[in-house]
Design a protein that fits this description.
By secondary structure, the chain is an alpha/beta fold. The chain folds into 6 domains: 141 residues, no CATH class; 101 residues, no CATH class; 99 residues, no CATH class; 113 residues, no CATH class; 243 residues, Rossmann fold (3-Layer(aba) Sandwich), CATH 3.40.50; 233 residues, 3-Layer(aba) Sandwich (Rossmann fold), CATH 3.40.50.300. The protein has 34 helices and 41 strands. The strands form 8 sheets. A 7-stranded parallel beta sheet has the order 31-32-30-33-34-29-35. Strands 1, 2, 3, 4, 5 and 6 form a 6-stranded mixed beta sheet that branches. Strands 36-41-40-37-39-38 form a 6-stranded parallel beta sheet, with helices on both faces. α32 links the parallel β40 and β41. The longest helix has 21 residues. The relative contact order is 0.05.
Length: 975
Amino acid sequence: MNDWRSLLPARVRDGDTPLALGVELRLRDARGSWSARPQRAASPRDVAKREGEILLGVRPLVRSEATGAWIQGQASWDAVRRPGSQFPAIASRWFADLLNISRDSLLSGASGEWLILDHVESPLLWPHLRAADEHGVALVSTRKDVTVELAERAVVTGGLRRGDDGALHLRAQVSFDDVAVPAADTRAIGRTGVYAASVEGSRMRLRLGGVALAPSVLPLLGVAGAVVVPEGEESAFLRDAYPLLARSVALRGEGGFTPPPLPAPVAVLSVDHLRGDSIRFSLGWEYPGFGRFPLSSSADVVRDAVAERALLSAIEAAWPTASGIPFDGGGTLHDVDAAEFATHVVPALEAIGVRTESTGRRKTYNELSGEPEITVTTVESTDADWFDLGVIVRIDGRSIPFEPLFSALSTGRKKLLLVDGSYFSLAHPALGRLRDLIDEAGELDEWETGPRINRHQLALWEDFEDLADEAIPAVTWRATADALRGAEGVPHVPAPASLTVGLRPYQQQGFEWLAFLWAHRLGGILADDMGLGKTLQMLALAQHARDAGEVRPFLVIAPTSVVGAWRSEARRFAPGLRVAVVEATTATRGGMRLDEIASTADLVVTSYAVARLDERDFSAVEWAALVLDEAQFVKNPATRLHRAVAGFPADVTYAVTGTPLENSLSDLWALLALTAPGLFASARAFRERYIQPIEQGKVPENAEGGQYRRRRLEQLRRRIRPLVLRRTKESVAPELPPKQEQVLEIELSPAHRAVYDVVLQRERQKVLGLLQDLDRNRFIVFRSLTLLRMLSLAPGLIDASDAGVGSRKLDVLLERVAELQAEGHRALVFSQFTSFLDMAAERLEKESVPFARLDGSTRRRQEVVDGFAAGEQPVFLISLKAGGFGITLTQADYVFLLDPWWNPAAEEQAIDRTHRIGQTEQVMVYRMIAAGTIEEKVLDLQRRKARLFTAVLDDDELFAQTLTADDIRGLFDAG
């Protein structure tokens, strides 16, 4: 039970040995041998004789149980600073802190059992001494004939008078709590305090107090009499020592003498006008009679730091920030900066009294401030895909040369200076929009003869027209632009008669859109929702091109698992097309060369793996069009596959994917770089213009964040609109039964929870320490995250010894499967982890539930798929990577996702294996989430990524984040 005495101050508690800080003057005798340490206590007589060196020492004392006096006893420095000893803990901490504060004294070699305060430099000493009583430590003298007083306030001043001999006499004046003591009795404690030993008969009074001491004051302490300045040295004293002393301590005149006033600084601006619109300038201080000094601080005693700071603050306040020249004490300025400095900064400083000294020939500058008038033209170029762009700007009647204007806008400059001294701001809204458009039209180093617009950049030209007071496009560009403006009302094109199936209305519209792009030799992205027949629309385009006289083949590149589906769907829907499937590389297939195969085919289908390995052969064939199926496979432009595909010669490239944006807008850029290479020519510009503001929230200074990001998003959507077509199942296939999704939260068993929580704490500490450099540690971080994801499913996946813990998810799955089997339903079961599918298969076999399985090791993939479609198995176990695309399984009407994945698009593709055209039953989707685990955080991350996809392609929502270090921290947040 707690003792009520714990409520008392430490100094009145019972049960602990009290401590005191003993204070004593120590004498280092100047006669005889010299010792590093003071040899004995100094008596009042020693102090009065002023022989030897007096130092102030302290040491811990304990109260004698026999006499009640303060004695040395067992109170060594080492004993009192150790917690848990016989001394009060609060007092021990106080002595330990005193030793830390006094470390300079400890290193001086003059300590021993006595701590010498004369060498302590820390200003923390004084509040610490004043707090001694609160910590139960008394401040006492070690001698009965000496008293010790700790003053609340110590003051050091100076007095200066002229003596009868004509010399100046300078002395220090010291007081403790308004009681004056002779300076001769006073000594310094570092540069933060003083102590005075005053002999009063046979006794001595010792006073201590804290006060800041300038180095110039220290020589005046402990001096008997005054410091004399001979008359012949007075001028040197007043120049070299007096200013510093007068600014360090209050210095009074005595005996009718009045100290001279201190010199005041004058701000001086030196301006050198150099050749070629350059100015070199410097700010400094002049002290009349003492010369010129730099703006930066120095040790010159004449300088008045307080007055300089006040003047400097006035200069900074008067410095015109609108000039764009940041405040600086000196430097060299060029071009517009030099013009702004001469026009605005110099007059502003002169107006507050700064003296200006100029050298060189001063040039006259003229600022243009009128409204810009802009004319935009395009003219034909030698490249059929590009048009040269001309921009004419006039301000205040002055025609601005385009080359310097273009260079200034492209390099992000704020203002432009012309050769005649005229200059103007580029911050005008019209010029700002022109800057944005020029940045988007292409990079400066890509334009050898001036800016150019690519034929894919229809929306960009429309923005130029909106900006300009007058727009004069080239004839062929106008024809292309006018045609593309009506992309939403493309001409009707009959579907090829040889198709064996009628196109649904939205498929007909998609085919017409593709045919329209084909007619203008423009590529694009067909991004219809999964299951809406994108393959059929592309087959219709290939047949349309063949019917129109195209003799070169279309090249289709698809994942290996989908190559067979292209062959079967072409045979089924477009039997008039000659289809060749290339499933092996030249080195392994034997037979005809690729060019021979292409010469006899209308459609060549191959896999991404073969295309990458046989890059040279595919690059040697002239293709009519390149079709990239499941184009998310080429979303990384740094890969060899992306570079290889970009080099295949084809009139146009079409990307076919339901997920053109999986993780970041960079995925979309990578596809557009292949399908519309002139739309966003620079990855860096796309990153700065769209990815950073939309995904990462980076906006320019002084810009309103939400509005700026929304403008960027709207601009991006306008740019990609003509070349991206996306329809959702909800909008174009109302006959499709609804899809119902539900999150099943599964509670871990107590044993499972115990294992998970232990590993979570270990991995959290490791991962959070690696996030400062996520790029370097990304593999380690994701390994830890994968470990936790697997542990959320079943401890046995990590450690075979924990297999007995089991998995509540599998328990729930088996319960649901049994119900579905009884009711005649069929289910797809997806997981990222084949090892977890192994556990699921084991449980299903144990319960005698028939099932099919598809993962990366499956050899006869189509046979397995066909077997499930025709068979009686109620369950199909599928790994998300192997079966998330390229197959149709409308026979199933239930989907179980055993574990969430970072990428929501991958899960949606998996769900759409069954929720697609041809499905007649309502599809039920269950996302199984282990409650209180990392899976809940992954689900939150999925929702954010899904909003990014929706914002760019489906509606105007604007919330998005990529997987950043902050996201990973969130995965480990509690709750």
